[in-house]
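I hope you will forgive my troubling you with a question about protein structure. Here, with my thanks, is the record as I have it:
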Amino acid sequence: MNVLIVVSHPRKDSLTFQATERFAQGLTEAGHSYEILDLHGIGFDPVLQGVDEPDMAALEQTFSPAVETEIQRLKEHDALAFVFPLWWWHLPAMLKGYVDRVLNNGFAYGSNHLHHKHLLWLSLAGVTEAQMEKRNYGETIQHLLNVGIADYCGIRNSRVEFLYGTVEAEPDHYGRLLDQAYQLGVNYAK
């Protein structure tokens, strides 16, 4: 399987990028190929402008060159993974803008749907699992991403995985999180 890994974090030296690399290593171990798309690295503009606004009346829509490039990139992969820090219980603005602009009407929903077989949302959460579940945040986030986005775009095999407690300073804990990311790559399509 050829997986597009979309990563959203402003710093290359972040735990998010380390988790991305370990996830990619796991994919390789399992025999998959991948491409890493660094949204900050390519200077992706997350702001939805008029040219990319969904036109619900159009059967086909032409988008900006930047969005057309990303649509073509998505077409070249069988599966997806989004790797990102959880900020304010949601996607970072950069990744939310990517979803808004690229997973657009007529391509990802409406008259067409995404063709991808699998989608993994790999989120790094500063809180513990207990803190996440205290107000049912985990279930709410999973529903939003798996149903509100993936299922709406035609991807039935979508799941959310959290790497918890990312603000801890204990090196062993970070090692366990990176091992978890690696295992998610190894077991990606299982």
